[in-house]
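note to self — DONT lose this again. spent like an hour looking for the file last time. sequence + predicted structure for the chain T wanted, 397 res
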Amino acid sequence: MPQTSRLRTLIQRCQTAIGSAAHDITREVTVNLGCEPSVTVIISEVADGTLIIRLEDIDGVAPSDLDGFFFDLADEALLDADLTVFPFVNTGDITGFGSGDDDQTTLSNGAMVAEGYDVSLQFGTVPDSTEGSVEGLGFTLYSDSGVPLTLEDIDLEKLAVVVDSDGGEGKVLLPHDGAAVAEDGTDPGPEDDGLCEITMTDPKSGLEVTVTLTELADGDMQVDIAMPDGSDAVIGDLRGFFFNIEDQSKLDDMTATGADVTDSQFAADDVKDVGNGANIKGEIVNEYGAFDGGIEIGTQGASEDDIQSTSFILSHPDGLSLDDFDGQAFALRLTSVGTDDDGREGSLKLVGFCEPKPPVECEDEYDAFYTSVMAAAPAEEEPVAEEPAEDLELDLV
């Protein structure tokens, strides 16, 4: 087949795959790589035997410069299947493509991954280099010899993305643990750190209450309060929830909404009683001082309502996060405490803390290695001006 005809056929095939991907995608997997920054890799299996691969930054604040993508094949026999990418090299943001049995390690700027991969792609805006900023892109991977490709052909545990490597301080991002074995084909990402669980226990009565703060995607803070149930369980009627916050300026315009929320107060270091017996006066206030906020839950007495678990939302126009509550004190007021057999005549005031979580070292990324390509180039020598030649006096004979 003439070269021009072959090229036209390849372009048409790739354009068709991209243009109709929304209808022809049979399966798709999403894998998140790295911690800070993080990149998501979305691999779509298309009915015509091609794979569409997209790389996107998922931090949403400061996008990374994508410089390279490395991956392994599940069957190395595919290395003989004339793997090809579209857009072609140096016709867009793909500035390099290579394949070989575990021998792909290095980008043109000298940045290296720690082990060899079967396939590598390089990204940039300047041909044959990583120069320029590429914050996201997609491409089609296919076999020029007609071998159909499926998701199983990509080893999802052996992916690596190189970011921000042009300055000599690049990062290599790796898949999160378990990312490649999620049954639904998606990666839930690293363990959710947007949650704080506080357990408050009264050693005398044995009552135990769990308060869970969950940071929601929309900037709200969900508060869940629960205690064990069962005929023999020690329970109580939840009446008040009190809390402190790191940034007390957020008390202005703060709101609390929930089915069991009766009233609320927000005032820096000045909340200890939200009315109708829902107070935290006494030993806790004497030791920790008044709180920044208080929520009245339900009504006084267990005859009208008897609340052992509840959920409500704390909101602020600027948003709330767990950082606002790390290390802060929380307190509960409970009445009608006891078991169903003893008449529940007790009352309690409990205190607990949202303990700050120690920083966890990310195991899903490492610093890129560099070859001598990135070694500091010797300073250019300034040209030395040539001194004018001395006049020569010639004796003519």
